[in-house]
Amino acid sequence: MRTSLATDPAVIGIADQLDITEFEVVGILHHLWTWADAQSRDGHANGVTTRWVNRYVHRDGFAEAMVAVGWLLVTETGIEFPNFERHNGETAKARALATVRKQKQRASVPASVPNVSRTERDESVTREEKRRDKEQQQQQPADAIADIDARKRFEMFEGWAPDQVSLAPHLKLIGVAGDQITAQVVAEFVSFWMTRGAMNNQAAWCRELVASVHRNGVRAAANPVARSGRTSQHVGLHNQDPHAGLEANTDGTYKL
């Protein structure tokens, strides 16, 4: 409803006919138009009479005063509110906008495009959005990693790199030196997770990277491998007597 309604000449005319204030007229109109907005789509109200309108708004002669200023029409089947869209509420406005939007959409669709159901359209749009999101992630250069929202979840993609802000606390808490996060380590980490389809935010990916380096270090310490180019210190054992310095027991065992 318009904010300047109280100064509308039609409102002034109704107030003068009924000998009430313009603000009373505005209040009654709001009450009546709210009902019309809920009960009518186009301003027509079949079976409704001016007598009922007067009873509904608790003011004798109000309907006739609206007729006099052209804001209400009496038809053979009921009543009609002219220029309904000027006075209707948000519900009717939303219906009108939705109708216009659908008409524009129909007009923009070529005749050769086959009709599809709403479910098929929604699924198609969803797949297309996912495809675009994945392409954008894969095309994102490494120097743009800092712009990623640390809370936004995404799949691992080629070109990903850890950022120092997310990496530093995990290096400290897990106990991994920063120089252990080499380019080769990051590349292997990215290669592994690109095939898994898992989703994490930037901070979680950085934490997983540090944890994987730590796990690899623990496994390497538990399974040492002789370094190439070095000779084992345990040589010549076949020439030594393993029982030297021990006293033989009657049961075939030895003791010191």
Written account of the structure:
The chain is mostly helical. Among the domains are: 5-93; 145-222, Helicase, Ruva Protein, domain 3 (Orthogonal Bundle), CATH 1.10.8.1180. The protein has helices at 9-18, 22-39, 50-57, 62-68, 84-87, 90-108, 118-139, 164-174, 183-194, 202-222, and strands spanning 44-46, 73-74, 78-80, 154-155, 199-200, 247-248, 254-255. It has a 3-stranded antiparallel beta sheet, with no helix packed on it. It has a two-stranded antiparallel sheet with strand order 4-5. β2 (73-74) and β3 (78-80) form a beta hairpin. The longest helix is centred in the middle third of the chain and has 22 residues, at 118-139. The radius of gyration is 41 Å and the shape is rod-shaped. The model has no long low-confidence stretch (mean pLDDT 80).
Distance between the termini: 108 Å
* Helicity range: 40-55%
Could you give the order of strands across the largest sheet? 1-3-2
Which structural category fits the helices and strands? mainly alpha
Radius of gyration: 41 Å
Q: Uncertain regions: pLDDT < 50 for 5+ in a row? A: none
Largest sheet: 3 strands, antiparallel
- Helices and strands, in N-to-C order? HHEHHEEHHHEHHEHEE
Count of DSSP strands? 7
Count of runs of 4 or more consecutive helical residues:
10
Strand content: 5-15%
Task: Sum up the overall morphology in one term.
Answer: rod-shaped
Chain-averaged pLDDT: 80
